[in-house]
Amino acid sequence: MDAAQATMAQRTDENKATAAERESMRTYSDAINLCDTTLVSIMQNYAPPIGKVMSNYLPLYRDNETNLVMGRESWGEFVVRTAELNRMINDENAQAFQSIKDGFEQRYANEVQQSHIRNQEQAEALNNFANYMQRQQAINNANRPVTTNCSGGRNGGMVTCTTF
Fold it and tell me: By residue range, what is the domain housing residue 100?
């Protein structure tokens, strides 16, 4: 049952849990505790803000269930307290999800900036290499030995020269 959707009769029910209901709650609690512990551990490793919220609120849920099972509160009190806990955990989860989203956005912005810097550095390196190659070509052209071969010119003929 979604405690937020509880009827007025459910919220004001002054009856305590019966022996059969208490036994069912104990069985449920034992089974769900293992799942909760595993889930909190996973969340603390992979989504720490969510893991923190869960580790803060799960004991409160367990206390609420214990109060019902031990006869310290009525069904109505249990339903109202569960609804309050649900609202609080939903609010904190929203903040935790926003924190995770902000972290991803910041990491993405940093990666884009680093990529931009790397691209600029690569472009600058290529430009420097191109300039070096142009200077080297100019140096090679200026320092190249020049050879001139001439032929002809005997007995008043024409002389032909080739320079390379």
Answer: 1-164
